[in-house]
Amino acid sequence: MAPGPMTAALAPLFQPHDVRSLRDRAYDDIREAILTGALAPGERIKERDVAAQMGISTTPVKEALRRLEQDGLVVSQPRRGAVVGPLAVTPPEEILQIRADLEGYAARLAAEKMSPEQKAALAQDLDTLDGLTAGPGEDREVVAEATNAWHRSIRRGAANVFLERFLDTLAPFDRTIRVRSTLDPAEWALDRDEHRAILRAIAAGDGATAERVMHDHVHRVIAFHVRSSAAAGRSSGERSATARGATGR
C-alpha cells in the first residue's frame, strides 16, 4: 500500500490542542481524518505518530482508538495494531438514510413518552441552542455539539435503550456534516425552524407529526451534504486545473 498521510512528507495531519480533554480531542481529530478520507480504509494508525503530531502522550490516543473501534471506524489487526476499518467506506448518504428512519421513530416515541418536565427541559435547551451564533474556529464546534446534544435528549426521551444505542453508533458519521452546516447561514436558519417544528410536535404529544418532521429534517441534511460535497469536488477540480495550467502541465 502506498504511504498515506501518516507517513507522507507533508504537513502534520494532526495538530496540538489545548481545549477539551485530550482523549476527546484525539477521538474527534482521528475520526475526522477517517471520515474525510485523509486516513484511508486499511491504513495503519500509528499511536506514536499521532501523539507526536498532537503534542500529547500515547495514552489519550489509545483511549481514542478504543472508542473508534467501538464505533466501527477502526479495527485491531495482529502485528499491525489499529487500522482504518472498512465501515469508513460506507457512503455518508446511506448512513444518513438509516439515521433518518431511526431519528424519526425516536421523535415519535419521545412525543409519546416524555414527561412534561422533560419536554420543558427540551424547550429550554433549544432556546439555548438558538442563542448560539455559528462562527469560525471553536464557535462552530460549540454549535455542532449543542445541536447533537439536543438530538441526544430526544433519543433519551424515547426511552428505548436499543434505539438510542443504534443512533449513538451512527452519530459520529454525520458530525462533520453538522459542523459544515453551521457555516451556511441558510442551512442554520432552516435547522432552527425545523427544530422548532419538532419541538412543537413533541410538546403536543403528536408522535406521527414528530416522526414525519424529524424524518424530513434529516433528509434535508442529506440533500445539503450532497450539494456541499459536489461543490467541494468542483472547487478542488478547478484548483487542480489552475495549478496544472500555471506549471504548464
Summed up:
This protein is mostly helical and 249 residues long. The protein folds into two domains: 22-89, Winged helix-like DNA-binding domain superfamily/Winged helix DNA-binding domain (Arc Repressor Mutant, subunit A), CATH 1.10.10; 92-237, Four Helix Bundle (Hemerythrin (Met), subunit A) (Up-down Bundle). The chain has nine helices and two strands.
Keywords:
249 residues, disordered C terminus, Four Helix Bundle (Hemerythrin (Met), subunit A), Arc Repressor Mutant, subunit A, single chain, two-stranded antiparallel sheet, 9 helices, mainly alpha, elongated
Notes on the structure:
- The chain has 249 residues and is mostly helical.
- Helix content is 70%, strand content 3%.
- It is built from 9 helices and 2 strands.
- The protein has a two-stranded antiparallel sheet with strand order 1-2.
- The two termini are 27 Å apart.
- The model is unreliable at 235-249 (pLDDT under 50).
Mean pLDDT: 81
CATH topology of the largest domain: Four Helix Bundle (Hemerythrin (Met), subunit A)
Sequence of strands across the biggest β-sheet: 1-2
CATH class of the largest domain: Mainly Alpha
Based on the coordinates given, report the CATH architecture of the largest domain. Up-down Bundle
Radius of gyration, whole Å? 20 Å
Tell me the number of strands: 2
Q: Estimate the global geometry from the Cα principal axes.
A: elongated
Count the domains: 2
Helical content class? 55-70%
List unreliable stretches of 5+ residues.
235-249
Query: Please, what is the CATH homologous superfamily of the largest domain?
Result: GntR ligand-binding domain-like
User: What proportion of the residues form beta strands (DSSP E)?
Assistant: under 5%
Termini Cα gap: 27 Å
Structural class: mainly alpha
Summarize the helix and strand pattern as letters: HHHEEHHHHHH
Largest sheet: 2 strands, antiparallel
Number of continuous helical runs: 9
